[in-house]
From TrEMBL:
Entry protein name: ABC3 transporter permease protein domain-containing protein
The organism of origin for this protein: candidate division TA06 bacterium SM23_40
Major localization class: membrane
Domain named ABC3 transporter permease C-terminal: residues: 278-405
Transmembrane segments: 272-296, 317-341, 381-399
Entry's Gene Ontology BP terms: lipoprotein localization to outer membrane
Similarity comment text for this entry: Belongs to the ABC-4 integral membrane protein family. LolC/E subfamily.
Entry-linked PANTHER family: LIPOPROTEIN-RELEASING SYSTEM TRANSMEMBRANE PROTEIN LOLE
Family matches, as InterPro entries: ABC3_permease_C, Lipoprotein-release_system, MacB_PCD
Length: 414
C-alpha cells in the first residue's frame, strides 16, 4: 500500500477522534514546552552561578603567590603579590585582556559599640571594580566607594548583626602582613544586598589604599584578578602571563591560574553541573513517561479498529506504518506548539527575570535575588526531537503487538 495513501488515512484518523488526538497533542505539547523552558531555566542557573563566581571571586585568571592557594581559607595577607602596579600594567597590554584589578582578601573582627562580628573583607580599586564586580548595582542603601576614602560597604545582614546604618562608624581589627594587630575606623557609606547569603552575612568592602594602611602593605595585593574579553581564552592568556612573570623574574614566587584550575571554583562548577544533570534527567524521564503512557493508551483503545482494518485487507506492516504516521503527525504539531510556547515564556523571562526574593539566601551557590533564564535555539530543538522520538517509540510496540492479532479476536474486543 502506498505511503501517500497511509499518510492521508493517518491525517483523517487524527481528525476523526478529536478527543484522543487532543489528549495526545496536549501531552506532547506540555512536555516539550516544559523541557524547553526547563533547559532555559537551568541554563540561567548555571550562567548566573558562573558569572557571580567569576565577578565576585575567581576572575578569568588570578595571579597570586604560589603558596597562597594552599592557605586560601585562612586568608593570609603575608603571602602577597608585590609590585602590582607594574605587573598589572604589563598584563593589561596583552591581547584579550579587558581589566586587571588588584584585590586584598582578609579576615577581621568588626566592632560597633558593644556589638562585634567576624567578617571577610575585600579591598579593591573602586573605579576598576565598578566594571568587574559591579557592586554599585547591589547597593540597597547609601552609595558606592570612591577613591582612597576610609569608607566601608557592609553586607546588609552583617550590618543588621552589628546594629549599624549609613553614616555610622565601624572599627576593623585584623592582623598586618607582619603578624601584628592593627585597628582602624571606617565610615559606613553603603549596604550591599546581593541575595547571596554568604556575602550579605559576612562580607565587607573597603578601598585598596585604606587596606594598605590597615594591613601594612604597599603596592601589594593578595591577588591580581584578570578579566578577559572571552573567557574561553583563559588558558592561552594565562600562559602569556606566565611568560610576563618570567620576564619580570618573579615566576619563582607567583603564578597565573585560569578559572578552570582554581580548586574551589572548579569544585563548585562540578557540583552545579552534577545537580543540573540530575534535574535535567528528571525532566526528560517524567516527560518521556507522560508521552509514552498517553500514546500507549491511545493505541490500545483502538483494538476493534485495528481488527476492522485487518479484515479489510490492511497488512501488518501497513498497520504499523499507519500508527507511526499518526504519531508523527500529532507529535510534530504538538512538539512545534510546545517548543514555541516554552521558548516564548523563556524569552520573556530572560529580559524581566524571575524574582526569587530571599529563597536563595541559604543556598551554597551564588544565585542572587533574580534569576534570568538563558535561552538558546538548541533548547526547543532538543525538546522537539525528544517529544517526537518518545511519541514514535511509544507507538511502535502496541502497533506491532496489535498488528499480530487475529482480526476476529480484535473485532470481539470491547
Amino acid at each position: 500500500m502506498k505511503i501517500t495513501y497511509l499518510a492521508a488515512m493517518a491525517g483523517r484518523n487524527s481528525m476523526r477522534n478529536r478527543r484522543r488526538t487532543l489528549l495526545t497533542f496536549s501531552a506532547v505539547a506540555i512536555v516539550v514546552a516544559a523541557i524547553a523552558f526547563g533547559q532555559a531555566w537551568l541554563g540561567g542557573i548555571v550562567h548566573t552561578i558562573f558569572d557571580n563566581y567569576i565577578r565576585l571571586q575567581a576572575g578569568h585568571i588570578k595571579i597570586y603567590h604560589k603558596a597562597y592557594q594552599e592557605k586560601e581559607q585562612m586568608l593570609p595577607v603575608d603571602l602577597a603579590v608585590e609590585g602590582v602596579s607594574t605587573m598589572g600594567a604589563r598584563v593589561a597590554r596583552l591581547d584579550g585582556v579587558a581589566e586587571v584589578s588588584p584585590r586584598i582578601r582578609f579576615g577581621g573582627l568588626l566592632s560597633a559599640g558593644e556589638r562585634t562580628a567576624f567578617g571577610t573583607g575585600l579591598a579593591l580599586v573602586p573605579e576598576t571594580e565598578s566594571r568587574v564586580m559591579k557592586l554599585s548595582g547591589l547597593i540597597a542603601e547609601g552609595r558606592y566607594l570612591t577613591g582612597a576614602e576610609r569608607g566601608i560597604l557592609l553586607g546588609i545582614r552583617l550590618a543588621e548583626s552589628l546594629g549599624v546604618a549609613r553614616g555610622d562608624t565601624v572599627a576593623i581589627i585584623t592582623r598586618t602582613s607582619r603578624g601584628a594587630m592593627s585597628a582602624m575606623g571606617f565610615e559606613v557609606v553603603g549596604l550591599i544586598s546581593s541575595g547571596i547569603g554568604a556575602l550579605d552575612r559576612r562580607s565587607f568592602y573597603v578601598t585598596l589604599p585604606a587596606a594598605h594602611r590597615l594591613i601594612g602593605l604597599e603596592d601589594s595585593a593578595t591577588e591580581l584578578v584578570v578579566m578577559l574579553e572571552d573567557h574561553n581564552t583563559s588558558r592561552e592568556v594565562a600562559r602569556e602571563i606566565g611568560s610576563v612573570l618570567r620576564e619580570m623574574g618573579v615566576d619563582e614566587w607567583y603564578v597565573a591560574v585560569p578559572w578552570q584550575g582554581q580548586g574551589e571554583f572548579s569544585s563548585a562548577v562540578a557540583s552545579v553541573l552534577v545537580s543540573v544533570g540530575i534535574v535535567t534527567s528528571i525532566f526528560f524521564f517524567v516527560g518521556g513517561l507522560t508521552i509514552f503512557n498517553t500514546m500507549l493508551m491511545s493505541v490500545f483503545e483502538r483494538t476493534r479498529e485495528i481488527g476492522m482494518m485487518r479484515a479489510l485487507g490492511l497488512k501488518a506492516g501497513g498497520i504499523i506504518c499507519l500508527f507511526l504516521l499518526e504519531a508523527l503527525v500529532i507529535a510534530s504539531i504538538g512538539g512545534v506548539c510546545g517548543a514555541v510556547v516554552g521558548s516564548g515564556v523563556a524569552l520573556c523571562l530572560q529580559s524581566t527575570g524571575i524574582p526569587l526574593g530571599g529563597a536563595m539566601e541559604n543556598v551554597s551557590f551564588p544565585i542572587g535575588n533574580v534569576l534570568h533564564p538563558r535561552w538558546s535555539p538548541r533548547q526547543p530543538l532538543y525538546a522537539f526531537i525528544f517529544g517526537l522520538v518518545m511519541a514514535m517509540a511509544a507507538a511502535v510496540y502496541p502497533a506491532h503487538r496489535a498488528s499480530r492479532l487475529v482480526p476476529s479476536e480484535c473485532l470481539r474486543a470491547i
